[in-house]
Amino acid sequence: MELRIGVIGIGAMGRDHVDRINNRVNDARVTAISDINQEEGLKYGAEIGAEFISNAEDLIASDEIDGVVITSWDPTHEEYVLEAIKNNKYVFCEKPLSVDSAGCMNIVNAEVEKGERLVQVGFMRRFDRGYEDIKKELDKGQLGEPLLLHCTHRNAEVDSKYDTPMAVENTAVHEVDALRWLLQEDFVQAEVILPKKQTTNTHANLHDPQFMLLQTESGVCIDIEVFVNCKFGYDINCKVVCENGEIGLTNPTYYSIKTENKDYKRVPSDWKERFIEAYDKEFQLWVEGIKQQRITGPSAWDGYMASVTTTALSLARDTGEKTTINFEEMPNLYKQEQFV
Ligand code: NAI
Fold this sequence. Notes:
The chain has helices at 12-23, 38-48, 56-61, 77-86, 101-114, 129-140, 166-183, 271-274, 276-292, 300-319, and strands spanning 3-8, 28-34, 51-52, 67-70, 90-93, 119-121, 146-154, 187-193, 210-216, 221-227, 235-242, 245-248, 256-259, 262-265, 323-324. The protein has 340 residues and is an alpha/beta fold. The strands form three sheets. Strands 12-11-7-10-9-8-15 form a seven-stranded mixed beta sheet, with helices on one face. It has a six-stranded parallel beta sheet with strand order 3-2-1-4-5-6, with helices on both faces. A hairpin with a 4-residue loop joins β9 and β10. It is globular, with a radius of gyration of 20 Å. 43% of the residues are buried. The chain binds 1,4-dihydronicotinamide adenine dinucleotide. 1,4-dihydronicotinamide adenine dinucleotide (NAI) binds next to α1.
């Protein structure tokens, strides 16, 4: 049976997900869309053969929709996810689950009250082959205990709307989730260093680069460089230093070029290119989850834990102090699938 999917928010990410659901994911098709921009919505709906429903709540409540994808602006996520839970609808929500931890907790509480998982959050790095392979190796245990992680998150450039807080909330949030999943433990302390020396390619409202430090419950230390005007491409690195060795990501490239006395490999231009396979896999898993009525991808609890961590990082940046990360106790609903 082909699942009928409704997508709310048909900007860059929404259209990307529509394309993958319609063309690369099995057993699902986008049959309805919604967006506050009615003109664009009607035009795009006609283009992809999906009904345009101007009111997103009507799309969520529709009997002709089996699953909802939320790719509207961040502040709208919480309301739509809660509406989906109220209507017993499976919902895939792009990160962040809500703009703050209290909002994420509202969603966790609503799901716990329902007694079943309906929400999957768009933390696609867990589906990236590189991260998956690192996790498998760490789980085998031969490398010994992880001690230190060195990570970089670099974008070629960002637009003038991208400001200092976004380096945590929109960028490092991916490391926050992926590393918690990789290490299978929570973070307890955050610190942010804003280097005095900045790139001349930045603008008044963006401190670039930034250096973030996290420590886990067992004491693993992590540094994350966020540098969003690095100029050369989208460059994601993660090295785990263990007791008996080191393991790290390589940038997946499928060819190298030799020309003019150079031998070089391509650096991906953006996240869509770098993580295309991971996005496809996260959606396939979501569709399988709906069919089997058992969602196992990143949960509302993971969305909450990411939020408490990014909130602590933001506070650490604003105060210049090391910040303790506090969180609620995990409800039983999430214990079984934790770190799957
Ligand atoms: P965008 O600005 O290109 O598109 C957002 C769309 O949502 C627009 O068409 C806008 O009209 C619509 N919209 C806004 N408020 C709405 C509402 N109340 N109801 C219905 N539609 C509404 O933004 P983009 O880049 O597509 O980002 C969308 C979401 O995806 C964001 O939450 C962002 O954080 C997330 N994202 C996730 C990425 C990932 O790697 N997982 C990468 C990029 C974005």
